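Closing statement on the phosphoric acid mono(formamide)ester sub-project.
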Amino acid sequence: MRLQHVVESQQFTVPLLMELFQRTRRMERIVARGGTEDYHHKVMATLFYSPSTRTRFSFEAAMYRLGGKVMSTEQARMFSSEVEGEQLEDTIRILAGITDVIVIRHNETGGAERAAQVSRVPVINAGDGQGGQHPSQALLDLYTIYRERRSLDGLTIAIIGELDGGRTARSLAYLLSKFERVKIFFVSPPEVQMKQDILDHLDEHDVWYALESNVDRVVGEVDVVYQTRIRPERVADRRSLGGFTIDSSVLRAMKPDAMILHPLPRTVELDRTVDGDPRALYFRQAENGLYVRMALLTMVWGDD
Ligand code: CP
């Protein structure tokens, strides 16, 4: 199955996800063997208008592990011709003429879609705006769950944090809506709860969800604790932030076979004492980003 651009999670079907996960397993084996030179003729541009550690480095590592080459700007707002007033569309047309794939993180919601509209090579959204999407992150999140559980049907998950602008949480919710009997608790201070467009989407797809404002109330019944950042300045009652923190008391209440994920970076919402718990899978989750992104690159090029 061929993917043209990767802009939003909704474009993935369950068969497409399963193909991606199968390829991802293959990529894990390829990396264990030292990588491949199969894609030595391919060139990737990583065009980042806002900061990133994991996404940019893992896309670039993915390309190197496939044998390809990378051209990069990690501060496109300073070090691209945008400084001279160049429009995004012109930048993309130029890069599309000289590369085989463009990975873009844009500061505006819809930036990746604008890029895809004018690009003749695949565009991959590496996160757009506040409240846009981050589909490759959600794909690696889902792969991490699938790798552990072997199934996504029947999953119960708590998605915690500042959810209104949470592009990883939004993309993940879209992906989860594709599976059967999924239950989602959105756990967030009320003023930064998940936006209505996602809740409407879940209603349309008959996905069970509940809005909660304390981790303790749900943590004992979920298979996955998906923690995300909360910026204290966005919350009116800062004393309430403790109700959204994963720490040793939350660990004690969690199911023994549950898992903790976090797209990272973290601040205070995920205590470092949690790192040694076998249910803390967020560093493995970040590593999986390499394999998922390798698989995605091969799929946008339509290769077997
Ligand atoms: N998870 C994630 O998107 O991290 P970066 O911002 O470091 O890419």
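The CA atoms of residues 41 and 122 lie 16 Å apart. With this model delivered, the sub-project is considered complete and its resources will be redirected to Aim 3.
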